[in-house]
DNA sequence: TGTCGCTTTAC
DNA sequence: TAAAGCGAC
């Protein structure tokens, strides 16, 4: 059988893998390959936490391949050279991959496709990660959607969920002449190993993704619609890092959840699928507005009076020492697990971009380095949304009050107590705003900040004043 | 997927 | 006196 390179990127799975399927159905021996080439992703090369995740995911993928008689080839970039060498060494006649949509990698992949075809290879790319290609949905005028609701309405009108496809139990062996390099040898793990504590919370890899889906389907799905905002509960799917690496296809999630639909959980399933819709929307926006990882989409903010970050305060935000418990709990959850509950992400992001008035890109960069689910489309949309600078964004004047939010969503203070154990001794209303009783705080937690780094009222007022000053419209 | 301050309404 | 309603940011 002729060989076909199956170039793996953010699709580290075997089931529901269009490129792998195309190789097999085309009568090829798949040669699965991963090429490490972070420099080609420019300023948004994967951050440390998602690298650490990917290192484990690659090892899991290699094990899955080996259990079926194949294996993963690992190579170093430049990608064009690594592919050329793989093609030469294997005599491959075809190259298949699933598309990525980032502004740096997409032009690279388009150019590669052209070059490889000119050399007589059969090359084909597929949609391996989205319900819709980012260019597929368009407004009546033919432009991109900038508001989620009409985007989602259009998506639902054309809704089609791909068939599931299970990879065969046996795969053809990769030619023995192709050299091995262990996935474990890639420089993807942070030093020092700050990620050590992550892995009691996560199992990277396709099996881990499938297990996370089962846990969600049997648990948090019931009541997801209301509980997903509760950081103190396991109220979310926790599938985001698995989705980011492509360890599971979103259509498999939908196909697994839909049969569970009953009288009680219809709103829960709809609410979850709607979140997958935001992921689609994020990719749609990144495709049409490729500058948005670095620039405000709304031009009004070019003349907005962002504050020059004080590096000490920025570090306080990063490491959970702002003096505002719900934010510090979230930032410490992030540091300890590589993840933060979505509701808390919004509260922490609002504080950075409004109370502190730092440009959201400082926060986006920190999340990029520390989130295991860091995804350029989602991270960009999320930050521009909270900061009020993006598409269909919360208006800038919508300022979250972190005390009110904590009272509403962490009502028993359990989340705060979990990540800020030093505050667990404080009684309830005080735990949300400990500066209101300095003596009690000093006794319970002598090392915790006495006051928020920015006073809540003063920060809010300054943000609103800056917004007014940035002009009409 | 907000907050605040003010007014109105209900008791 | 407090909950509910409303407009402005």
From TrEMBL:
Residues recorded as binding FAD, renumbered to this chain, are 224, 236-240, 272, 373-375
Q: Which domain of life is it from?
A: Bacteria
Could you give a single Gene Ontology term from the biological process aspect?
Answer: response to light stimulus
Report if keyword Endoplasmic reticulum is assigned. Answer: no
Which GO-annotated molecular functions does the record name?
deoxyribodipyrimidine photo-lyase activity; DNA binding; FAD binding
Annotated site, Electron transfer via tryptophanyl radical, chain positions: 306, 360, 383
Q: Which Pfam families match?
A: DNA_photolyase, FAD_binding_7
Cofactors: (6R)-5,10-methylene-5,6,7,8-tetrahydrofolate; FAD
Q: Give all residue intervals belonging to the Photolyase/cryptochrome alpha/beta domain.
A: 2-131
Please give the name of this protein: Deoxyribodipyrimidine photo-lyase type I
Organism this protein belongs to: Pseudoxanthomonas wuyuanensis
């Amino acid at each position: 059988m002729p060989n076909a390179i199956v170039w793996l990127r953010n699709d580290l799975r075997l089931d529901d893998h269009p490129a792998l399927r195309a190789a097999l159905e085309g009568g090829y021996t798949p040669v699965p390959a991963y090429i490490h080439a972070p420099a080609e992703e420019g300023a948004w090369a994967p951050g440390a936490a998602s690298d650490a995740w990917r290192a484990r995911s690659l090892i899991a993928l290699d094990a899955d391949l080996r259990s079926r008689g194949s294996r993963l080839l690992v190579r170093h970039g430049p990608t064009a050279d690594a592919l050329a060498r793989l093609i030469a060494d294997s005599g491959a006649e075809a190259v298949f991959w699933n598309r990525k949509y980032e502004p740096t990698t997409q032009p690279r992949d388009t150019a590669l496709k052209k070059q490889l075809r000119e050399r007589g290879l059969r090359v084909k790319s597929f949609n391996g990660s989205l319900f819709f290609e980012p260019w597929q949905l368009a407004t009546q005028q033919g432009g991109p959607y900038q508001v989620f609701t009409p985007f989602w309405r259009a998506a639902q009108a054309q809704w089609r969920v791909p068939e599931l496809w299970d990879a065969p139990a046996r795969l053809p062996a990769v030619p023995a002449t192709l050299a091995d390099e262990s996935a474990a040898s890639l420089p993807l793990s942070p030093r020092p190993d700050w990620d050590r504590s992550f892995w009691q919370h996560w199992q990277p890899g396709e099996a881990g993704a499938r297990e996370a889906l089962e846990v969600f389907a049997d648990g948090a799905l019931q009541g997801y619609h209301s509980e997903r905002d509760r950081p103190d509960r396991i109220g979310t799917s926790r599938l985001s890092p698995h989705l980011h690496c492509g360890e599971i296809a979103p259509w498999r999630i939908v196909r697994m959840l839909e049969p569970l639909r009953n009288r009680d959980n219809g709103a829960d399933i709809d609410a979850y699928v709607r979140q997958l819709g935001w992921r689609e929307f994020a990719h749609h926006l990144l495709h049409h507005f490729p500058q948005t990882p670095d620039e405000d989409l709304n031009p009004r903010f070019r003349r907005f009076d962002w504050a020059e970050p004080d590096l000490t305060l920025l570090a306080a935000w990063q490491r959970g020492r702002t003096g505002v418990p719900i934010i510090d709990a979230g930032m410490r959850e992030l540091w300890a697990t590589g993840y933060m509950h979505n509701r808390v992400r919004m509260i922490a992001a609002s504080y950075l971009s409004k109370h502190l008035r730092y440009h959201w890109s400082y926060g986006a960069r920190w999340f990029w380095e520390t989130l295991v689910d860091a995804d350029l489309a989602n991270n960009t949309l999320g930050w521009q949304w909270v900061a009020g600078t993006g598409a269909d964004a919360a208006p800038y004047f919508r300022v979250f009050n972190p005390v009110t939010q904590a009272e509403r969503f962490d009502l028993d203070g359990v989340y705060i107590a979990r990540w800020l154990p030093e505050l667990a001794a404080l009684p309830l209303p005080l735990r949300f705003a400990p500066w209101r009783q300095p003596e009690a705080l000093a006794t319970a937690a002598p090392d915790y900040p006495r006051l928020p780094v920015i006073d809540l009222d003063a920060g809010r007022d300054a943000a609103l004043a800056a917004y007014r000053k940035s002009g009409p419209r």
